[in-house]
Amino acid sequence: MHFEYIKTDHSPTAFRLKELSVFFSDERCLEIIEKVLDEKGNILNFPGILEDERWRAKQNVGLCPDVRYEAQFHCLDEGKFLMLWMSQPSGWHWVDEDGFGFSGDSPITLYSVLDANGNFEKQFALFRIGETQYCQDYDSFLP
Fold this sequence. Notes:
8% helix, single chain
């Protein structure tokens, strides 16, 4: 499988897959993305999700192990990769061109770490709800 991508205007090294809302910060991430996602955005070898009442209480959409809204991949040290997975978008996602359909959903982002072979090293865990970030372990690797 081969994903096509485009360079974005967000920063000098920001890319997006053409067919999915998947952003990545370095072309080295492409190899991992191809090991982790199929062409429809399904997350292969999904590791599960660490239950956490903070995000569970805000979850308003059904969880499916796929990239339905957005995902990001970032290179970490020593051949490791960070995957940020938006499991629920903000309520603006549902607004139509006439302004109807808005809901009060908070965007929820979960994260996991992958090795160089594309294997998940941990279950997905809470990264961010709305503007509140709960995990700061990887801030130095984010743009």
